[in-house]
Write a structure and sequence with these properties.
Blueprint: H1 3-35, H2 67-72, E1 78-82, E2 86-91, E3 96-102, E4 107-108, H3 112-117, E5 124-126, H4 129-137, E6 141-145, E7 148-155, E8 158-166, E9 171-179, E10 186-192, E11 204-209, E12 213-215, E13 224-236, E14 240-259, E15 262-268, E16 273-281, H5 284-298, H6 314-331, H7 334-348, H8 350-365, H9 367-376, H10 381-395, H11 404-407, H12 410-422, H13 446-461, H14 467-484, H15 489-514
Antiparallel strand pairs: 1-2, 2-3, 3-4, 5-10, 6-7, 7-8, 8-9, 9-16, 10-15, 11-12, 11-13, 13-14, 14-15, 14-16
Helix pairs in contact: 1-12, 1-14, 6-7, 6-12, 7-15, 8-15, 9-10, 13-14, 13-15
Length: about 525
């Protein structure tokens, strides 16, 4: 194999890495879109619809999305209960959850769409329009006791009692008892499309059955019906989730389109039930605690952690996240935890990187001899190939040894990229000085610029036998710098640290091979 071919392989490799990093989120979205639709409902085709206002939903369950709904509640008759991390607000109109604010992330999990259209979690939707209006547009009597609030409604032969209990783990225990509603179908409004947290990750309905997790896109225009042994259902985005889980399980969930790229999740319920709402961040450790809690209470594995998508290379991403979380538990700074994780990965991958750098150094040392052979056998390509392979054998050089170790690292890089893009733990997490949020871009672009400079320095000291290849890698450094300017600063910090460690390793290899 000619050295020129080897150089082309290196350039193709680095180009592939750049392409993967630029387009990975889009690839992930495409893969996700094609594979997360419930297979049972593939016969119900969904199409993107043109922009449309709130519309009347046809079918058994009518949300009564009209001016009457909007005007019936001015959101002034509300009750606020403090939580461990913020507060939850309930409206006495309908006994509905109208706000779930989390101080850690400065966000209300009940989206603005809900508030402007007066569509809230906690509503009971029925197959009788008049009863639906009665249950959600009427004023309830309320009673508060510590972290518990109960709502009461009585109208002729219909009685409803809703009791919400705010728990320290961010769950809201829901206990609903009704009378006089036996003749109508009942569904609990579980979730409304959440505010998008960027293009990366899924944003839409999520349903967990005892066999799989189902994620549906918001751009549907027909009602989707899912019937199975359902453990919980609701809405999610990259960082947050609104769900309902019922003791004994759920049989049917409806995904109802109500506007462009906006859906409502309805969960069919019995006349009386006990369950819990969760409106909060997708924290791995917290989800483990809640899952363990209901294993003991209900003897069922809700597996809430399955909602956190570690990506195509999740088999690597999840262990990397657990290691990152473990490091954070000791140093209590996510930025420093990323640096320590990068150092550990570099140590683990040291033999591969070392082998790659040594191979490139040997190839560079053979450059003068290669040029002599090219001139000597310019008119005899077959003989040139034989002499080149003979030169490689005498020098103990395998042309592919410099490439394959690097290729083996690509899944690790992509897995960690996905982890740093989707974990809510990094949201609003400061590093130091001007970096106040590791999930957001560097506001002054200091880290991306330093990262670009580190790539230039790395190419400057990395052995290379081809000036054109070196120039291409300098250009690549500029491309990466521009590309990383809008990436989360936590990801840029990882790449910068990795480059600095690569520089140190290159210096060590160069010195050791000169002896």
């Amino acid at each position: 194999m000619e050295q020129q071919d080897m150089q082309k392989r290196f350039m193709i490799f680095f180009g592939a890495v750049a392409l993967l990093l630029i387009s990975f989120s889009l690839i992930n979205q495409y893969f996700f879109k094609d594979n997360t639709q419930n297979q049972k409902n593939q016969t119900q085709q969904t199409q993107k619809e043109a922009a449309a206002p709130i519309k009347q939903v046809s079918g058994s369950y009518d949300l009564v999305l009209s001016g009457e709904r909007v005007n019936v509640d001015n959101l002034k008759d509300i009750v606020r209960i403090k939580t461990k991390e913020g507060y939850v607000e309930f409206s006495n109109i309908g006994g509905r959850i109208v706000s779930a604010f989390d101080n850690r992330y400065n966000i209300d999990i009940v989206p603005e769409f809900s508030k402007s259209n007066k569509v809230f979690p906690g509503e009971i939707i029925t197959t009788n329009t008049n009863i639906t209006k009665l249950l959600n547009f009427s004023k309830y009597e309320s009673k508060i006791q510590d972290n518990k609030i109960s709502f009461y409604l009585k109208n002729e032969n219909i009685e409803v009692e809703k009791t919400y209990t705010i728990n320290d783990d961010n769950t809201i225990t829901v206990d609903i008892k009704t009378k006089g509603l036996e003749s109508v179908g009942l569904a609990y409004l579980t979730g409304i499309t959440l505010k998008s947290e960027g293009t990366f990750g899924h944003n839409g309905p999520i349903i967990k059955t005892d066999k799989e997790i189902i994620k549906i896109n918001n751009d549907i225009n027909t009602i989707q019906t899912i019937r199975d042994k359902i453990l919980w259902a609701g809405q999610e985005n990259k960082y947050f989730m609104q769900i309902l889980s019922i003791k004994g399980g759920i049989n049917t969930v409806y995904i109802v389109p109500v506007a462009k790229d906006t859906t409502v999740v309805l969960t069919e319920i019995p006349a009386s039930f006990e369950g819990f709402n969760y409106l909060g961040p997708k924290l791995y450790s917290l989800f483990g605690e809640i899952t363990d809690k209901y294993k003991k209470l209900w003897n069922v594995d809700l597996d809430l952690r399955s909602s956190i998508d570690f990506g195509f290379f999740g088999i690597l991403g999840k262990p990397l996240f657990l290691l990152l979380h473990f490091i954070y538990d000791f140093i209590h700074n996510w930025g420093l935890a990323i640096i320590v994780l990068t150092v550990l990965l570099r140590i683990v991958l040291f033999p591969l990187n070392h082998k790659s750098l040594k191979a490139m150094k040997k190839m560079a040392d053979l450059a003068p001899e290669m040029e002599k052979l090219k001139k000597k056998y310019a008119k005899d390509p077959q003989k040139l190939q034989e002499e080149i392979m003979k030169l490689y054998a005498e020098a103990g050089v395998n042309p592919m040894s410099g490439c394959l170790p690097i290729l083996a690292q690509i899944p690790i890089f992509i897995a960690l990229y996905n982890v740093l893009m989707v974990t809510v733990e990094l949201k609003n997490a400061p590093f130091m000085l001007w970096i106040k949020d590791l999930s957001d871009k560097d506001p002054y672009y200091v880290l991306p610029i330093l990262m670009g400079l580190s790539m230039v320095a790395q190419q400057f000291i990395t052995p290379s036998s081809d000036k054109n290849q070196r120039m291409i890698m300098y250009i690549m450094a500029g491309v990466f710098t521009f590309m990383f300017m809008n990436f989360p600063s936590g990801l840029v910090l990882y790449w910068l640290t990795n480059n600095i460690l690569g520089l140190i390793q290159s210096v060590i290899v160069n010195k050791s091979m000169k002896k």
